[in-house]
TrEMBL record:
It comes from the Bacteria. Keywords: Signal. Residues 204-519 form the Glycoside hydrolase 123 catalytic domain. This is DUF4091 domain-containing protein.
Length: 573
């Protein structure tokens, strides 16, 4: 496929992915929230490896307090096509000078090689304290502390034969060699590629943040080249929507970076309107054709911005103006009527009309109602997507609607009815839900727990803002200044296309959602609903009341679900 930017731009973007000099890569000093006492290990204990749960975080100065095993095997198990991960702690009482990781490869009985990705876990500040989150290859920004988590990740090939694959993890700590055997059990079931997943995943993108961090002009060739790996990571999690902004700042400047307009609106001197869709077109084409989201819907925000201000260039005044326009008034329709008609004509010409949605975020019915009247008069073919606090007579008719986690119990009959109509019903979490969530202070297992909850309630998926709406420097701190949002509320990955423990946990949850769906479909096809009884019983723990409670055992629930999934898969073979 021919790319719309030069190879020179690609090389420049590749260089920029390594953080520019003005963004030094280091780990902040700070209070460790998990200061487990070092007295649990005898003085003089040599550097060693300790296997621990992938669903837990470990502090930089927090020794695991797990008995040091003389022998252990790092064990994985998963379906073909699934991503599986394990965590091991590198513990060194004397402190770290250097960690060197050797390549790790697993080999099947027939000699096939499966690579293992190795990521040292870095720390940043969230809620005022250090928390482990950043997955960063073998980067060694400081290696402070006496603990360094290491994550091993395997993408199991979809065409590999079921069975076992084995290898060895080898590394050196301060010159001391350490090693551990690694074993992967490959189940016969197959998870399809992410583009075929049915989970309706809607994670909002923020292109402006990428341009700011990497210090390149918005919508330049370099900007698109830099966005490619971030968006490929998003697509690899099964993303189903593209976030677009029809106006400047649909969210009233609530994040560090603005959300700029993708359409330039001009009011000519004669009172007519002109619309430049060139940025919108390039963004949608980029995400659709180059990233692979060809069937993704395009959520166009702007009809009901939080500030109700609408910026455009006024030729007569020779400047940008931003009047406040209230839905239900003639001025509001005078602005949006021609705009919507031009939008419909444009996306129809591009072949995108059936994918484009007018998107709104947490607006009351008092605003929805008059705005939708304008839509019906000027763009009746466009469907609506919205995040809402609760269902209403208006929102239940939207094509794609996401409701707050706290009302999931009420959504079951509605979701079933809407699903039969081909409409999507999901839930979302944001700053308003203390738990379960994906904050810096959230238990790591919470992120994974969210998607089985969607499966339990028969919902179509999950929505979260935002993918990479970064703070000023998320390597230094995920805390907002001023404190608009809980730490790490608005980003799930890091600059330089670095993943996070939270992102991988959420992605694991999406895979679990898909496995549940596939097993349910297989049981129905075979007429064997009884095979799913243990699975459905395990899913019964994933309720709002339990999940939002202060003592929810998220990890224990997930372990029970893992066992039930294994049992169901074996019963249906």
């Amino acid at each position: 496929m021919k790319l719309p930017f030069s190879l020179l731009s690609l090389f420049a973007a590749g260089a920029l992915l390594a953080d520019p000099p003005r963004h030094p890569v280091y780990e902040p000093d700070g209070k460790d929230p998990q200061g487990r006492p070092a007295a649990t290990l005898e003085a003089g204990t040599k550097p060693h490896l300790t296997p621990v749960s992938m669903r837990q975080r470990f502090g930089r100065d927090a020794l695991s307090r797990v008995p040091i095993p003389k022998r252990f095997t790092l064990g994985f198990r998963g379906w073909r096509g699934e991503r599986v991960s394990e965590q091991v702690l590198i513990e060194c009482l004397a402190g770290f000078e250097e960690v060197r990781l050797d390549p790790c490869v697993l080999r099947t009985a027939d000699g096939r090689e499966i690579p293992v990705r190795l990521d040292l876990v870095r720390y940043t500040v969230g809620a005022g304290v250090l928390f482990a989150d950043i997955l960063d290859g073998d980067a060694q920004p400081s290696l402070k502390g006496v603990v360094r988590p290491l994550v091993l990740t395997v993408d199991i090939p979809a065409d590999v034969a079921p069975g076992e694959a084995t290898g060895t993890l080898s590394l050196r700590v301060n010159g001391t060699p350490l090693s551990a055997p690694v074993a992967l059990t490959i189940d016969p079931e197959t998870l399809p590629p992410p583009r075929e997943w049915k989970c309706h995943l809607d994670i909002w993108q923020h292109p402006d943040a990428v341009a700011r961090w990497h210090d390149v002009p918005m919508w330049s060739d370099a900007h698109f080249a830099l966005m490619r790996p971030y968006m490929e990571r998003l697509a690899d999690a099964g993303q189903k929507t593209i976030t677009a902004t029809l106006i400047d700042e649909a969210w009233d400047r609530q994040t560090y970076d603005a959300f700029g307009p993708m359409v330039r609106v001009t009011k000519r001197k004669d009172g007519s309107w002109a619309y430049d869709f060139s940025v919108f077109d390039r963004w949608v084409a980029f995400m659709s054709e180059e990233i692979g989201l060809r069937d993704a819907t395009v959520s166009c925000y702007g009809l009901l911005p939080w500030s109700l201000t609408f910026a455009y260039h006024d030729e007569a005044q020779g400047r940008t103006v931003a009047p406040k326009l209230t839905p239900g008034t003639p001025d509001y329709e005078a602005f949006w009527g021609p705009y919507l008609e031009a939008l419909v004509a444009h996306v129809r010409g591009k072949g995108w009309e059936d994918r484009v949605r007018l998107a709104m975020d947490e607006r009351p019915d008092a605003l929805f109602r008059p705005a939708l009247e304008v839509v019906r008069r000027h763009a009746p073919s466009l469907k609506i997507v919205a995040a809402c606090n609760a269902p209403s007579a208006i929102t239940t008719d939207f094509d794609d609607c996401s409701y707050g986690l706290n009302i999931c119990e009420r959504l079951v009959p509605l979701a079933k009815e809407r699903h039969a109509q081909g409409k999507f019903t999901t839930f979302y979490v944001c700053c308003a839900q203390p738990r379960p969530n994906t904050f810096a202070h959230s238990a790591l297992a919470e992120a994974e727990w969210l998607l089985p909850a969607a499966a339990h309630y028969g919902l179509d998926g999950f929505l979260r803002w935002a993918y990479q709406s970064w703070t000023e420097d998320p390597f230094v701190s995920q805390d907002y200044r001023p404190a608009n949002w809980p730490a790490a509320d608005t980003s799930l990955v890091y600059p330089g296309n670095r993943s996070s423990l939270r992102w991988e946990a959420l992605r694991n949850g999406v895979e679990t959602f898909e496995k549940i769906r596939l097993l349910r479909e297989k049981a129905a096809r075979l007429g064997r609903p009884e095979a799913l009884e243990p699975l459905e019983a395990a899913l019964g723990a994933f309720t709002v009341a339990r999940g939002m409670g202060p003592d929810c055992p998220y990890e224990a629930d997930l372990i029970t679900l893992d066992e039930a999934l294994l049992q169901a898969a074996e019963a249906l073979r």
